[in-house]
């Protein structure tokens, strides 16, 4: 839906008029004769009610890994077979890579395409939260692992072509020139690409293993549901403004999701080799591929492949069975943010 100005012309813009479009006037190649005046964001004049709704959801979902008592998982961690520990560390290093890409590039890359200034602020908020996610896995490492184990896992991630290929596939669109393709890439990363990794802590959780780590993963999943929903929603609004691209973008999305699924399974087959979990992982990835498609406004086409997703994995997603794992489900985890009190001068006397 485009906003319409009093003279009847559409105020929709692929490129917003606020700071991302500012160019140094000395930059002859890129610069207009003058920059438009910069407009301060006005949260009292909302163009798209979804921006405020999502902002409020994001801020009410805010959490930090420092508040999750991960060390309570240490006794169980020490009893895990070495192979399961190695798998866990690799899974979390892979998740760290994708959240790093999303925090530093994926969310930020959508800011210049924003339709409203509020949308820009929402991506800034999401980018920060992606950085929190990327940091949260490091909290698991620092709690459970030795420095040499952590170093080895990061070397593995950097040297693993299958892991890198998944990040490369989305980076190509983040660095590209097409705002709609960027949104599809971002939605598919948040709603599909990480789920082969999330499967493992949910599988553990369903067996009563690493329960605090699973609580943290549920907080990440709760955020991801909003992130994927929002990029998908903005993709649909962008497509509304470009009806001539409907067929092209549908074709692009289905081709791209097929490519990402292939890359995801390439990676998964190697990662989970020897663990007898591949079938469950694949079903779970397809289950989330359907959610990604729905976020983008397309029909879920992987019902058959997702049919085998294990009930205990779905239950692990939703510890309270009255809740469902989606954007509108409210708080999906037991995390409660601490109560704050105002600081006094005496607090600063050390
Ligand atoms: Fe994330």
Secondary-structure blueprint of this entry?
Elements: H1 49-60, H2 74-79, H3 82-109, H4 117-144, H5 147-159, H6 161-174, H7 179-193, H8 195-206, H9 211-240, H10 246-271, H11 278-295, H12 303-306, H13 311-317
Helix pairs in contact: 1-4, 3-4, 3-5, 3-6, 3-7, 3-8, 4-9, 6-7, 6-10, 7-9, 7-10, 7-11, 8-9, 8-11, 8-13, 10-11
- Overall geometry comes to globular
Give the terminus-to-terminus CA distance: 55 Å
User: In terms of structural class, how would the helical and strand content be classed?
Assistant: mainly alpha
Q: Determine Rg (CA atoms, Å).
A: 21 Å
The CATH C-level name is Mainly Alpha
Query: Which molecules are bound besides the chains?
Result: fe (ii) ion
GO molecular function: metal ion binding; ribonucleoside-diphosphate reductase activity, thioredoxin disulfide as acceptor
EC number: 1.17.4.1
Keywords: Deoxyribonucleotide synthesis, Iron, Metal-binding, Oxidoreductase
Protein name: ribonucleoside-diphosphate reductase
Brief characterization of the structure:
The chain is mainly alpha-helical and 350 residues long. Helix content is 61%, strand content 0%.
């Amino acid at each position: 839906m485009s906003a319409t100005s009093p003279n009847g012309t559409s105020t929709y813009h692929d490129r917003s008029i606020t700071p991302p479009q500012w160019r140094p006037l000395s930059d002859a190649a890129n610069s207009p004769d003058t920059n438009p005046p910069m407009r301060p964001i006005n949260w009292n004049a909302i163009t798209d009610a979804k921006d405020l709704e999502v902002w409020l959801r994001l801020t009410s979902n805010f959490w930090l890994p420092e508040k999750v008592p991960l060390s309570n998982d240490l006794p169980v961690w020490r009893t895990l077979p070495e192979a399961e520990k190695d798998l866990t560390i690799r899974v979390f290093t892979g998740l760290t890579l994708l959240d790093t890409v999303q925090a530093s590039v994926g969310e930020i890359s959508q800011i210049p395409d924003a339709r409203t200034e509020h949308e820009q602020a929402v991506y800034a908020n999401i980018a920060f939260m992606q950085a929190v996610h990327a940091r949260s896995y490091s909290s698991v490492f620092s709690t459970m692992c030795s420095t040499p184990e952590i170093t080895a896992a990061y070397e593995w991630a950097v040297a693993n072509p299958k892991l890198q290929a998944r990040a490369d596939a989305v980076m190509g669109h983040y660095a590209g020139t097409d705002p709609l393709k960027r949104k599809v890439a971002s939605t598919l990363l948040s709603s599909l690409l990480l789920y082969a990794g999330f499967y493992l802590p949910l599988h553990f959780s369903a067996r009563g293993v690493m329960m605090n780590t699973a609580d943290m993963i549920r907080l990440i999943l709760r955020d991801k549901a909003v992130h994927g929903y929002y990029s998908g929603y903005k993709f649909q609004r962008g497509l509304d403004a470009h009806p001539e691209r409907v067929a092209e973008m549908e074709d692009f999305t289905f081709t791209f999701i097929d490519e990402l699924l292939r890359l995801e399974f390439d990676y998964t087959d190697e990662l989970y080799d020897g663990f007898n979990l591949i079938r469950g992982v694949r079903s779970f990835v397809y289950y989330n591929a359907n959610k990604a498609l729905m976020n983008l406004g397309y029909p879920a086409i992987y019902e058959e492949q997702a049919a085998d997703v294990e009930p205990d994995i779905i239950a692990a997603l939703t510890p309270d069975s009255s809740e469902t794992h989606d954007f509108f489900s409210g708080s999906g985890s037991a995390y409660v943010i601490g109560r704050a009190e105002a600081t006094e001068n005496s607090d600063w006397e050390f």
